[in-house]
Design goal:
The chain has 575 residues and is mainly alpha-helical. The chain is built from 23 helices and 5 strands.
Length: 575
Amino acid sequence: MTFAPASSGARSYGQGDGTVSAPGSAAGSAYGSQPAPRRSVWRWLLLPWILLSVLGALWALATPIGGSPDEPAHVVKAGSVVRGELLPSEMIPSGGVLHVPAALAYEYSQGCFAFFADVSAACAPAFTGDPNEIVESYSAASLYNPVYYWMVGWPTLIAPDYTGIYAMRIVSAVLTAFFLAATFWMIGAWRSHRLPTLAVMAAITPIVLYLMGTVNPNTLEFTAGLALFAGMLGIVLQPDPRLLDSRLTMVVIAAALVCNTRGISPLWVAVLLVLPLILLTGRELGALLKRPGVIISILLIALGAVASIGWTLSSNSLGTGPSATPDVVSEAPGVGLTPVEGFFAMIGQFYLQARQMVGILGWLDTPLHPTVYFVTYALVGLLALGTIIWVRGRKLVFVIALGLAFFFLPPFIQSFYVTKGGLIWQGRYTLILAMALLLGMAACIAASPRFLRWTRGRWVLTVVAVLAGAAWTYAVAYSFQTTMRRFAVGYENEWAQVADPGAWVPPLGAIPLTIAFAVTAALFALWVVLGGHDRRRSTLQPATPMAFPGDPYGLQTPPPSAGRHPLDPAFPTRI
């Protein structure tokens, strides 16, 4: 961002030179865009990071070894990557051959309860032998990009046993919680952040917290993807030259990591980068793309995408799929369908996919209480209703485009794979788009002058926030309790039986973990309700060194109304 003297002797922003007006200039002396709220690092970054890390870590302890989808394959992959084995020595029908400590490979033997909801984790045999012994194993994830596995696999170098597996889970929880906290941190700089903050809380469904406490690259994909999307929304919806560099930094880091999680992840990055640009006019987009920081960011993101695509093509990780080799026919349902048939078959599974995005836990064998699903559906419904009522113009086009991507892209991708691989798509694969859709709707509603005027001085948004926080706490705590009961004594048994002698006992015990999770969830919801609320300003503040509303990139001369805050009665009503 450059500053240059204007003819008046003050610094100017808005004459097309990319400069910013200082408060003493003609543009700056008007009462204009409210200054971005001051953010405390503790309040907006560290506190949510700690609380979300604890929630993920509690899930890590509450899930038995081998108790989450595909985790044995990811544990073996992580254990091999940090020991320098990036690719398998050979391919067999069950996956690529890798070499890891015996305790990591033994996780495959712990799956006696997987897919059987009434079988507790107590059936799993204990490991015996030398955990440090390097043995030959296999992994269906053996060809996956190694970046995530490098980041979480290192604890097994210190503890190559079950302790190392729990430690990997906790490292993954802390890593992914950071990107959720970074999302809140960026939203905290928005002039109206209460509704977007609530939307992110709603997007953190039970399956999100559950997967955060497992070893699975899918988790980094949707958490870092949400941070990437929040950064883009800040750039186009809440322009502030002072924050542009930090936002671009987060976008670049998150994009690089998301690109290198799974084979199709570069597609998600492209969607999350491109769709927010709908909110800009052609001239605004052109001005944005001329900024040096933006150009550098585009080049860095492109390098990350090229590295990801290069790995995918060289390893053929998408070509082999879950069957390990192209010549092995998958046993998944839908094998043999044409791409068109596969597309519509996925459309028909949308309700099942939606339930999975809320949470069918364990190895997709633990459905939750109907009220848990209702809570999420209700929060999503409120955002959709708010979009219909308050969002117009480019913002509405943007939300519709985001919704179409969420609904149609997964069936489109599945259609290319269905003939040989079958219908293998799970709801968790779409979480990156689902979470972005919720934040996108909330951001556009919160940026609507009509919404700002409607909520000014009203208590309705506060009531909604309190009810949403209480409902979210109930949903995630009940989900934790349900899944703990399923693992300890079986899905159909009573909670009181978790204390029986034959029940599976997690580290620290089932009851202490459940209480700790409920308390932490309530504290996080309280932070969202209280910490995320918009501070009232009794008077209009002088314009800050920012672009005026409607022309964030300095392409026009400010109109007379450009210096007014959206809550000013004289602010134009055009959206």
